[in-house]
């Protein structure tokens, strides 16, 4: 029975669920910090914000929304007040969040074989609860650097395998007690394939003729072939990548009354997506009543919080 003094009501819970579903859409669109920033850019662009380039001269107007990004992993968006330009900026109102989370990243040399299995070598980013990564279905997503078909320029592409590819299996409980610490160097290497099955399929993957980026030396050919097929390119166009391992289970509402949000990367994507929604909502309010001032309202979503906040 809900107390009469409680502020919670069925209507409030219903509206909360509706808002949560909007944030969940953003969480599911953001398997990596690169995808998160790309999602923010799309939302801002669709809602009238203008993209700026750090290397260009800016011409800003009052009552307008702008955004710029760096490295595809940090984004800043801001609104100018109606009196900006005619008066000095009186203040900046800034909401700061971050797009990165503790994660396993594919190592620069990922090819690893042991006991009849092909594994991916990884780096541990941030201070994660690494035991919780065991026995999960794991996906891969991030940024891939490719050379154009004519070889004249480099491009960034976002890749999401969008299916379970990896597993870090636990040992049976009588062989490994929970209180035993995880060896970060030896026990967090996810299984990618059985060596026998991968050798059968890798026979159909042509070696890269001029492998100056050492792609075949560093990574399994079946792995880079999967990336190339998904991106609609050939393998020798791959120059490098920054890829995260992520939980394949989507974000969703859980609980008897769907009152809980269950999701990976909640720290700090939930705050980032709420900040994004807030500045978009604020941009649509009546300018005369809400933004008739010389303030600048801003969100700054950084990408290095998990390694000491030393963002460039």
Structure characteristics:
Aminopeptidase i, Domain 2; five-stranded mixed β-sheet; 2 domains; 7 helices; globular; about 300 residues; six-stranded antiparallel β-sheet; alpha+beta; Aminopeptidase
Protein described:
- By secondary structure, the protein is an alpha+beta fold.
- Helix content is 25%, strand content 29%.
- The protein has a 6-stranded antiparallel sheet, sandwiched between helices. It has a 5-stranded mixed sheet with strand order 1-2-3-13-4, covered by helices on one side. A two-stranded antiparallel sheet has the order 11-12.
- β7 (138-147) and β8 (154-160) form a beta hairpin.
- The chain is globular and about 70 Å long.
- The protein starts with 9 loop residues before the first helix and ends in a 10-residue tail after the last strand.
- The relative contact order is 0.22.
- The model has no long low-confidence stretch (mean pLDDT 92).
Blueprint of the fold:
Layout: H1 10-28, H2 33-46, E1 50-51, E2 65-70, E3 74-80, E4 91-98, E5 103-114, E6 117-125, E7 138-147, E8 154-160, E9 191-194, H3 195-202, H4 215-218, H5 221-231, E10 238-247, E11 252-254, E12 260-262, H6 266-283, H7 287-290, E13 295-302
Strand content of the residues, in percent? Answer: 25-35%
Order of helices and strands: HHEEEEEEEEEHHHEEEHHE
Mean pLDDT comes to: 92
Low-confidence stretches: none
Q: What is the CATH topology classification name of the largest domain?
A: Aminopeptidase i, Domain 2
- Identify the overall geometry: globular
Give the strand order, joined by hyphens, for the main sheet. Answer: 8-7-10-5-6-9
CATH architecture term of the largest domain = Roll
Q: What is the helix tally?
A: 7
Structural class: alpha+beta
Rg, nearest Å: 23 Å
CATH class assignment of the largest domain = Mainly Beta
Structure summary, number of beta strands: 13
Let me know the CATH homologous superfamily of the largest domain. Aminopeptidase i, Domain 2
**Tally of domains:** 2
* Biggest sheet features: 6 strands, antiparallel
Give the distance, in angstroms, between the N- and C-terminal Cα atoms. 52 Å
**How helical, in percent, are the residues?**
25-40%
